[in-house]
């Protein structure tokens, strides 16, 4: 098994290398001279231009530029934002907790609803309940989430006035950022009102971000449970006279959950896609909104670094899920 | 009474008839097919159906609500937007963009994916490894993010957005084709055809491709819904269709600030996207069940 783990871990290297190359060369394809773009309307003198070109290394061959960039990335230097003049990694570090908080809450919502719903649909196969669960999850799966977000804003913010439209916290609260997670920071500050306000701000974006994972996990749980319930050992468990509860939750669900856990882990890519749309609509100060704004402003170091970090995150989580899959699946564990 | 197995029922049907028979018995897939056909017909015949030009700004009917509501203007079934344009005509013309682009994107990804995938599957070796690694890398970047980066580089326009989405959808076709080609290559009918002197692209197109079309058709149908969603998302972010083009996503983005005064300008375009995506997902699921030999058992 350790060999399998090692091989899987080694596969991260070409993946990250490839992403670095992809972003590097894609950005170089962009039209417009980056130095003239930096200089803006004022323009730049010929000597200053040559000096800047040398400073950024643009006078080097492309391949040398790439290896230089790769060396920088390996040393943890992802460049500096053209707009704010802050290192890309520092900006990412500041904004990432907001995205993580949103994504974690969304996944908790999705999992807590999806697994019971999927089990229920499988156990009550071909009943009204099953049809409803299947239909709702299909709608959720097909949902344009940017529209779903607007609908929720229309209902809960505009018409009912229950939820705030944007942001993470009302500006009247002054909470010191310790962990970067608003829910934890407000608790640490001991400010109950601020905590509730942060929770209020979180509800709608979290629901929106949870929608597609919820649908996917429900479908997966249902089909996995149906598959397991057909197995002989379930018949054996029933024949032994075990209670239906014990058959479903102790025997069936445990086995059915193995593929489901993998699917939960693989939602990271969907979550990141969702984060770009959700954060933009709800003005949530996370990395999705940050990258999109960098695209609008043509802040290429941020786009390049941001994509690299986001894709690196996806690779890391997917690899972890693969490894966990080996650990939790007894069938794979035995073949050492 | 003698029990009849499904394979006996289908015994005297051609494979195509069998798939059609199974699909026809799937009520939700048939409903989805009807909805899609209706949408396509309406989009094609749009100029004959609508009573107003989708770009015409009628200053005397700004923000008229849709039909049953108070203040609806006769002739404007779904109301008007902030510039007095008829929403029904805009949605119908928008369907032309969404559906046509959906087809174009899927066709582009399908054709190039099949080409690349079959090269990987037939050549094997280093070529295959390089292609697969590249596809893995593309799959590691979240779809919208990759599309956004491509659009950022090419410039925001509907054509560039379509190109970006077809690149994003490509890896799935490549992987499916490669896997299918490899499994077919070891079968005897391929060997027979090879012995018959068939090789290269001719072997691929005449002999192998017809036999691997099932998973590709399913993937194409499901990609169609993804293409429509992604194009709309890019339009919504201002990176796809630019106003005044009535593409559904850009309709949503331009009506965002009207959400309080004229909610119908927000609800209707999204509903159009949802219905189209839902129908093509349902049809895709139905096709998968109909084409998958495991389902008989």
Number of strands of chain A: 0
Look at the helices and sheets of chain A and give the structural class.
mainly alpha
Mean pLDDT of chain B, as a whole number? Answer: 85
Q: Approximately how much helix is present in the residues of chain A?
A: over 70%
Poorly predicted tracts of residues of chain B: none
Spatial extent as radius of gyration of chain A: 24 Å
Terminal residue distance of chain A: 5 Å
What is the terminal separation of chain B in angstroms?
20 Å
Portion of residues within helices of chain B: 55-70%
The rough form of chain B would be described as globular
Characterize the overall form of chain A. globular
CATH homologous superfamily assignment of chain B: MetI-like
What is the mean predicted local confidence, pLDDT of chain A?
85
Order of helices and strands of chain A: HHHHHHHHHHHHHHHH
Q: How would you describe what is shown here?
A:
The complex is a heterodimer of chains A (336) and B (297). Chain A is mainly alpha-helical. Chain A has helices at 2-10, 12-28, 34-39, 46-56, 62-74, 88-123, 128-142, 145-159, 182-188, 192-229, 232-239, 244-265, 267-281, 287-297, 300-328, 330-334. Chain A folds into two domains: 2-74, no CATH class; 91-334, MetI-like fold (Orthogonal Bundle), CATH 1.10.3720. Chain A contains 16 helices and no strands. Chain A starts with a helix and ends with a helix. The model of chain A has no long low-confidence stretch (mean pLDDT 85). The mean pLDDT of chain B is 85. With 297 residues, chain B is mostly helical. Chain B has one domain: MetI-like (MetI-like fold). At the A-B interface, helix 2, helix 7, helix 8, helix 13 and helix 14 of A face helix 6, helix 7, helix 11 and helix 13 of B.
């Amino acid at each position: 098994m350790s060999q399998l783990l090692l091989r899987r871990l080694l596969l991260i290297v070409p993946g990250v290398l490839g992403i670095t190359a992809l972003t590097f060369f894609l950005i170089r394809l962009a039209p417009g001279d980056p130095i003239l773009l930096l200089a803006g309307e004022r323009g730049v003198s010929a000597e200053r231009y040559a000096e800047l070109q040398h400073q950024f290394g643009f006078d080097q061959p492309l391949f040398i530029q790439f290896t230089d960039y790769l060396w920088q990335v390996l040393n943890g230097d992802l460049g500096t934002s053209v707009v704010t003049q802050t290192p890309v990694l520092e900006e990412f570090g500041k904004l990432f907790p907001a995205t993580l908080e949103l994504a974690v809450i969304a996944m908790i919502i999705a999992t807590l609803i999806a697994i019971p719903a999927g089990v229920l649909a499988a156990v009550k196969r071909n009943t009204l309940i099953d049809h409803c669960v299947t239909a709702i999850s299909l709608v959720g799966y097909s949902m344009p989430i940017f529209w779903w977000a607007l609908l929720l804003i229309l209902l809960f913010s505009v018409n009912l006035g229950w939820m705030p439209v944007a942001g993470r916290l009302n500006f009247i609260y002054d909470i010191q950022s310790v962990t970067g997670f608003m829910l934890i920071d407000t608790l640490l500050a001991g400010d109950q009102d601020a905590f509730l306000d942060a929770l209020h701000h979180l509800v709608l974006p979290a629901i929106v971000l949870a929608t597609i994972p919820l649908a996917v996990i429900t479908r997966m749980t249902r089909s996995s449970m149906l598959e397991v319930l057909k197995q002989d050992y379930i018949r054996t468990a029933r024949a032994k006279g075990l209670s239906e509860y014990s058959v479903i939750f102790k025997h069936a669900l445990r086995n059915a959950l193995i593929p489901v856990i993998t699917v939960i882990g693989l939602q990271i890519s969907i979550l990141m896609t969702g984060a770009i749309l959700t954060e933009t609509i709800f003005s949530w100060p996370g990395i999705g909104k940050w990258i999109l704004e960098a695209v609008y402003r043509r802040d290429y170091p941020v786009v390049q670094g941001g994509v690299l970090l986001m894709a690196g995150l996806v690779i890391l989580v997917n690899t972890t899920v693969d490894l966990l899959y080996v650990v939790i699946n007894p069938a794979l564990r035995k073949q050492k | 009474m003698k029990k009849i197995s499904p394979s006996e029922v289908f015994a005297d049907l051609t494979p195509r008839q069998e798939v059609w028979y199974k699909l026809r018995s799937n009520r939700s897939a048939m409903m989805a097919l009807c909805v899609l056909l209706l949408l396509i017909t309406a989009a094609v015949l749009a100029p004959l159906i609508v009573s107003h030009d989708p770009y015409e700004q009628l200053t005397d009917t700004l923000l008229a609500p849709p039909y049953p509501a108070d203040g609806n203007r006769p002739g404007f079934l779904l109301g008007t937007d902030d510039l007095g344009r008829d929403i029904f005509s805009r949605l119908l013309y928008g369907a032309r963009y969404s559906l046509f682009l959906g087809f174009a994107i899927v066709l582009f990804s399908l054709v190039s994916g099949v080409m690349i995938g079959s090269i990987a599957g037939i050549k094997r070796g280093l070529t295959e490894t390089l292609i697969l690694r590249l596809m893995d890398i593309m799959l590691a970047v979240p779809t919208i993010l990759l599309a956004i980066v491509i659009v950022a580089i090419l410039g925001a326009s509907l054509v560039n957005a379509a190109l970006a989405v077809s690149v994003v959808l490509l890896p799935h076709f490549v992987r499916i084709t490669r896997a299918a080609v490899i499994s077919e290559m070891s079968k005897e009918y391929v060997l027979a055809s090879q012995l018959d002197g068939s090789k290269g692209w001719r072997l691929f197109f005449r002999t192998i491709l017809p036999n691997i079309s099932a998973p590709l058709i399913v993937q194409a149908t499901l990609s169609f819904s993804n293409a429509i969603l992604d194009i709309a998302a890019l339009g919504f972010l201002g990176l796809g269709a630019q106003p005044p083009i009535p593409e559904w996503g850009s309709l949503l983005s331009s009506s965002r600030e009207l959400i309080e005064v004229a909610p119908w300008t927000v609800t209707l375009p999204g509903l159009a996207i949802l219905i189209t995506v839902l129908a093509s997902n349902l049809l895709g699921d139905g096709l998968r069940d109909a084409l998958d030999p495991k389902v008989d058992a």
